[in-house]
Every structure is written in C-alpha cells, then in structure tokens.
Amino acid sequence: MTFLAMTALQTALLAALTSAAIIALYFLKLRHRRVVISSSILWRRVLDERQSHSLWEKLRRIISIAVAVTIALLIALSLARPEIASLTGKNERVVIVLDTSPTMNTQTSDGKTRWEHAVDRAKGLLDTGGPTTEFRVIDTSGVIASAFTTDRDEARNLIDHMSPKTADPQFPRVDGTDSQVYFVSDGVTLHSTPSFVKRISVFEAANNVGITAFEIRAVPSTPLGYEAYLEVQNFGPAADVGLTIGGTGGQRTNKTVRLGTEEIYREVFDLSQFTGGGVRAAIQSKDDELPLDDVAFAYLPIKRKTRTVLVTRGNNFLETLLKLDSYVELMVTDPASYRESPNIDAYIFDRFAPATVPGRPALIIGTPNAPWLKPAIGEVQKPEITAWSENHPVMQYVSVHDVSIERASRIDPGDLTVIAASKQTPLIVASEKPRWVMLTFDLSSSDFPFHVGFPVFIENVLSWFNREQLAIKRVPGVVEVPLANAQIHTIDGKTVASEQQLGKTIFQTNEPGLYAATQGDQRMHIAVNLANPTFSDVNRSVFKTDRAAAAQHYWLRRELWFYMLMGALVLIGIEWFTYHRRITL
Amino acid sequence: MSTSNVTLFDDEFLKKLEYLNIISKRLFAGQLRAERRTRKRGTGLEFADYRAYVAGDDFRHLDWKAYLRLNRLILKLFEEEEDLPIYFFVDSSQSMNYGEPTKLDYARRVAAALCYIGLANLDRVNVISFADGIKGELPPQRGKGRIFKIFRFLTDMTPSGETDARSSFKTYCTETRRRGLAVVISDFFDSHGFEGALDILRHFRHDIFVVHIASHEEIDPALRGELLLVDAENNSTREITITPSLLTAYRSEFARYCETVEAYCGKYQLGYVRTTTDFPFEELVLKVFRQGRFLK
C-alpha cells in the first residue's frame, strides 16, 4: 500500500493520534442521568443474569470502541489517499489521441463508421486503469485537447464532442516519457507516429469513389468565360460512376463513366450555358462507403457588363482595349468634362485624378496630384520590376517580369498594398478602402500595353473592382475567411455561427458546401470541399493495432479513499442505529 | 389531620365501608364479646353442641327435655361471639415512597379502610408500621370512634429505611402472642426475602392476608438512555444503559416476581390481592376485596 497525499510515517502518525484520541474520548465518563427507583432488587437480577449469560454483553464495550476507532481511522486514512496497486492499479497517465481525419467517416461492414469504432475503443480505454489513472484526450484537428483528469465522465464528454474534421490532421505534441499514449486511427491520413505511441487501428477496407478535384476557372481568352474542372478517382473495385454537375439556374450535366481500380477520370466542363451562382458536382456509385467526397461545390460569378468611364486626354491603347471587351460598357470623357455619376461601376483615370476621391473604384494611371493620392516625391528612370504579388487578384495570370518602363514616379506607399515594385519605388499599388489601383508610371512610357498580360491585368482590375470573384477554396473543418467581421451564410441563406480572429472570420463545418461571407458591400464565396485524393483513398492504411495496446481493467473504479469514506458512512449509520437501540454503547 | 382525612376518605365512602364485614377464615378467641364466632363455648345465642354436665356448670344451660327422655343431665353449649384481633402490618420502608401517588399513600388508604371496617365490626385493630424493624405500633383499638386515632397514626407514618419484614414480624410476634388476622400491606421489595417474613406469621398461626402494592412506574418504567439507578432504600447505585430488550427483561422479571409472591400465598392458602397505585381505590376495596373473599 502506498499513500498519495502523505508519507508512510505521516500516515502512521495520523492513524496513531486518531486512535488515541478516539479511545481517550471514549473513556471519558459520560454523565449518566440520576434516577431514583424504589428498589434495585429486580434490576440487579436482570442485569446480573444478562451479563453472566451474554457474550455480547461482555464484548459490547470493546466492539463499540473498535467500531468508533475504525470509523475514525477510515476517515483519517482517507486523507492520505491510500493506493493498493492490485486493487486500483497504479497512478499513471494515459493520453488518448483520436484521429479526426475525414477518412474516419468511412463506413464499415457493421454499419458503423470508423469514427464510431474509434469512439468505442477510446471509451473502452477510459474504462481501463485504476481510479487514480489520469486521462487526457486529444484530437488530431487541434480543436480539443483536454488537461489530465481522473474524471472519466469529463473525458467521455469531450470524446462525444469530437467529430471527424478535414482540417489538416496532425499528430499532437505529447510527451511519452511519463504517460502512455494511445492513438486510435484508421491509419489512412496519419501514417507516422512517435515510437512510444501505442496504436489502435479501426481500419477496415472499403469501397470508395471520390471527387478529388473540382473547381471553376476563368477562361483567359474569353471575358467572363468559365469552365469547370472535375477529377474523380476510384479507390475500390471497378465501378460505374454517375457524374452530375448542376447549377443554381437549373442547368445540369450528367454523365456515366466506368472506372477501374485506381483509375482517375478528368474532364473540363463548359459552363457557358450556366448562369451565375452555386455549382454542385456529385457522383454516384454502388457501395460507396465515404459519402463525404461524393459532392463538391464551386461558385460561378454572375455575368454582367461593367459600366466604365475612361477619363483621358487621349489613350488609344486603353480605349481600344476597353471597347473590345464585350463585358465592358465604356464611356470616354476628358478631364474637364468629368462629373461623378451614381450609375457608374468603375473609373479609369489616365494621368488625371479628381480633387475628391470618387464614390466608385478607380484605376489611376500615372501619378496625378490629388489630395487623396500619394504625392510623387521624385522620379525614377528605367525602373526594373523586381517583385510582384502573384496572389493578388489583379495579378492573376499576369506576368510582368519583362515589362520595360522608361520612367516612374517615386512615392511613399505608406499603408498601400504594393503589388509590383522596383528596388527604387512601388510601380503598382492598391488601396482596399476606398478601392483603387494606381500605376506610378504612364502607359506611354512603358511597353506594358503591348504585353499579353495587359488585357488580363485590366480585366482583373475591373473584376476586383466590381465583379464577383470565384469562390475561395477551403476544406471541411475550421474554415478561415479573409474578411473581418463577416456574416457567414449558407447558399440557402441560413446564418452560420462564426467567430472573429485576428482580422479574419472563422466558422466550423464538417461537410462540403458553398458559403457566402458578407461584410458591408463586400461579398465573398467559400467553396468547402474535401476534394483531396489523400482523404479519398480510404484503403491506404499501413496501421495495425499494437499488441501492447490493451490496458488492464480493475474492479475498483474509484480511489480507495472514496470506498473508505463510504465504509465510514455505513459504519456511522450502523453505529447510529445500534446506539439508539442501545445495542452498542 | 382533618385535611389528610379528606384526602384519604370522604363521608360517602365511609358509609359504604360500614356495610362490609371482614371475613376470617378461622375462628379466633377474643377477649371481649363481639360479633365473631370463636372456639369458646359461652353465652352466645347460637347452639354449638352437647356435653355431659359436670359440677360447677351453669344450670341455665341444662337441656331439661333431654333429661326427661334420657334421664341424664346434658348441658347445651352455645358459641361464644367475641372480637377478632386484626394486625395491619403496613410497610413504611423508603421503597414505598415511590410512584404517583406513592405506594405508601395507597397503603395508608387501604389500611385505613380496612381498619374502619374492623372497628365497625367491633374487632380489635392493631396497626404496625415496619421497615427494617418495628417503626411504630398503634395499641389495639376497638369501636368506630377510634378511627381518627388510626388515621392520625397512619398519617404520621414516614417512609424510611430498608425493608426487613422477617426481622420486624419476628420481633412483633414474639411480643404479642395472641393470634389473629394479619394483613400485610407491602410492595415486598425485601432484600432478605418475603418468604421468611410470611413464614414467621404462619409459624405464629396467624390468618394471613397479603396486599401486594405496586406502582405503574415499577411495572412499566419509562426509562431511556444512559442512567444511574439509585436504590431508594440503600442508596446503592448502578450505571445502566436502557435498551428495549433490557426493559422487556425487567418487565418479565417483575411479573415473575409478582407471580412468585402469589404462588407462595396460594401454596399456603394465604389471601392475596395485588393492586397498582393507579387502580381506583374504591373499586379495590369494594370489589376486589370481595372477590378475594376478604370482605363479605
């Protein structure tokens, strides 16, 4: 027997003092109530007879003292938290890591999912060990990581709150030196674990055909032209797979293909007949065990002409380019005639800027003087573009590495976003609020208009100003939206609970879907899709249950002090009962 | 005295008592003529027997008709009616000072009532207070007019001392040779044993009638918890824990003790009446004594 709260010497001292105190108290004379009776003859006879004939009468005092001392010792020793390894196991720490990869949603032959099996195994682990065993439960999505606790109900509750998520699963950092670490997984997504981890497999082979890629992309050669790319892979035996791509306006494309084992089907679908809105891709195959990757979503921007005013003293390149764009409704005016109009979607100011910031987004060419613009603080000759942001929407599909510029204005970008820059000065800067883009060089002093990327750049700028964007792509789990204080809605208009974090909005979803994030007049679509061959390949497991994974069961489920206090309580009850019936003293 | 009398008896009750007679199972010789038959042959009205005339006999009692028929002088014998000595032994030990009302009070009332009946029948009434010896003795009283003297004696009786009836009776009987009806009123809590005491009375050939008084508090004591029992007679103490089983055992022991006293009386054909202090006193005197053949 060991004691968790005291040393053996302290415990022995406590026991001795307790016993001595109880015995001393017991022998303190209780003042008996004095009662005068007529004669003690009969009482004496009764008492003498009982005392001489009853063993119980002889032992009553000793037994009463023994019971009282036992009660006191049970209470006192429970403070020391005794532990008997053979009864309650040792005081140890167990970490249970549950794999919350999306492949855990795969169904098994008994109708349950791998996740449900994992939960059963994890709860089974909670039933092992002794009452002093501390448990910690962690998932691989980084959402739930409890502290060590002996409260198994709390641990069970946490496991019930876990669910398979698609967020990039990672094995958590756990210390295996002072604890046993169990990892319950199907072994599909996370193959490697630290050597001290005892693995418990819930893997069972399953049929699955999954969408491994689905996206809508603009056709560079066609303004507002979009196409959908779909990739489907069969991870089971050969099967007929039905493909469906449907749009919000009722457009629908169906196809059936036969896919062999590990065969990949890729196709680009023309969406010219689709009106804007959500697009859903779905596949159907027999005995598919993972429904999560059978659907995928994307957003097709709504097609509409951009009413654009070009304010210039004359610029053939721009004028010709914009007139050729069938999705631009162009109006040209000189700076003297410029008046702001509410029906305009965008302005293009060529070597001119109004005194006040326009109410609509604007592309400013050159570095005109205006109070709302950064003033030129010098001039740079032959600046060379050394850096540009390929991820910015206005630079999508645009290459500027070989653009030559004769001269450019030197500005201090301040809080502006620098999209392209030379070593001396920013060359393309952007402002989010109000939204505008400025080239610090004149088109006539550069060969940028002759580059193939220039029309794309103008198209990107106008798209960034007004047009709807393609949906940003995310995976199920914790979804991060690069828009502060945004409201999240499903495509059906239902509000989704969200939180704000470091200038971003995050929300949680465990299934594929299309969502909209709005903040003021800004709107953004988020396509949440599994679409990842790593997750769809549900049979890629090299995981087996370790032999040492089984833990020992103990009969006592709580620490000994609990049973000792219960015993003391029962003894107090018995003592109370027998005392009031004068069975004990 | 008058106040005590009021508490002991009322006038109506006294009138009822006058119609009762004490029955004696034996006939005893008395000193004065009274209403009791005795073994003595004398001048009573009731014919008893014949015997041959001897010189010196009273001529008035010769049966002349028998002389004419038989030619022999035959003397008619008549029963002599005399008074009956009644000895009331009242236990006034400390144990009698127990209960509500106390057993001694109850004994006083019983003794007073019986004394009154005895006096009303012209019997010689002796009242003896005893405990560990003879504490007091009222000389023989005769006639109803003496009842107040008896009342006073009974009222002045104070409870004290241990019970030693054997020693008390032995002392009294050796001093008073005349046999009679001995009425013993006691709780019979005698550490020396009640049998020895009654044996003494039997030895002196008294007709014995036992009135065993118990209080309700003794029969069914309302005791609980840790107690220090103090014996009222000798002040001996005993620590005790009252349990239901102990109370049950005590009740059984008390009943057994009463049965022992009754069995002894039955064995020697002694009159025996047991009563409790909460039993209505009038009912006891008028009915129970009649059922016990003590009164007629």
Essential attributes:
heterodimer; A: 585 residues; alpha/beta; Rossmann fold; Immunoglobulin-like; 5 domains; eight-stranded mixed beta sheet; elongated; B: 296 residues; six-stranded mixed beta sheet; two-stranded antiparallel ribbon
Concise summary:
The complex is a heterodimer of chains A (585) and B (296). Chain A has 585 residues and is of the alpha/beta class.
Write structural notes for this entry:
Chain A is of the alpha/beta class. In chain A, strand 27 and strand 28 form a beta hairpin. The two termini of chain A are 33 Å apart. The longest helix of chain A is centred in the N-terminal third of the chain and has 24 residues, at 55-78. Chain B is of the alpha/beta class and 296 residues long. Chain B has a 6-stranded mixed sheet with strand order 5-4-3-6-7-10, sandwiched between helices. Chain B has a two-stranded antiparallel ribbon with strand order 1-2. In chain B, strands 8-9 form a two-stranded antiparallel sheet. Chain B is built from 10 helices and 10 strands. In chain B, 37% of the residues lie in helices and 28% in strands. Chain B has helices at 2-8, 11-18, 64-70, 103-120, 147-155, 165-175, 194-203, 216-219, 244-267, 281-291, and strands at residues 33-52, 74-82, 85-91, 124-130, 134-141, 181-186, 207-214, 225-231, 237-242, 271-276. The longest helix of chain B has 24 residues, at 244-267. Strand 2 (33-37) of chain A pairs parallel with strand 8 of chain B.
| Strand order in the sheet with the most strands of chain B | 5-4-3-6-7-10
* Number of helical elements of chain A: 10
Major sheet characteristics of chain B: 6 strands, mixed
Strand fraction of chain B:
25-35%
Query: Per CATH, which architecture of the largest domain in chain B?
Result: 3-Layer(aba) Sandwich
- Nearest-integer average pLDDT of chain A: 86
Number of domains of chain B: 2
The radius of gyration of chain B is 23 Å
What's the end-to-end separation of chain A, in Å?
A: 33 Å
Poorly predicted runs of chain B: 1-6, 21-35
| Sequence stretches where pLDDT stays below 50 over 5 or more residues of chain A | none
| CATH fold title of the largest domain in chain B | Rossmann fold
Return the structural class of chain B: alpha/beta
Number of strands of chain A: 32
Largest interface: chains, residues each: A-B, 23 and 38 residues
